[in-house]
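# step 3/5: fold
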Amino acid sequence: MFTFSQEVAPTVTRMGTAQWHWLLGTREGLTARWAAAVRWVAGAVFVVFGIGKFTDHAHEAASFESYGLPAPDAFVYLVGALEIGGGVLLIVGLLTRLVALALAGNMVGAIVVSGIGEGEVLPSLTLAPVLLAAMLFLLWTGPGERALDGRLLEREMRRNGGRG
């Protein structure tokens, strides 16, 4: 449950078991194993491409400028930070569903702006749709095995005695 007050910013006062399970939980069995593999591979790809936004910043900024994006220099840094930070969080399996949602939005932007808008086939119409599908899969399955999300969920369940 969320509470709002005019004097202070919104805060989470109490999340029930169902909300914790949705945020941190995962599907069981083979799906959990696949989710872990998808998380690790996609996370590594995002980290590599995010690093590229910093190491080849001038080229990336020129590309973003050609797409007509506002403040292309700052936009490249923002996207690079999202990809590196999101990739690392995926690899360790922390806040997987939220990160997958943010990175899915990033991939939709890449597909629409550079892929469809500019006709860039590589990587915008090849790798970006695959990464978008991976993020949608993680939104559906959760983090999978060997994720910090699972440990956080276990801790919260122990703290609450399994009650919401």
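# step 4/5: annotate
The CA atoms of residues 101 and 135 lie 7 Å apart.
# step 5/5: archive (pending)
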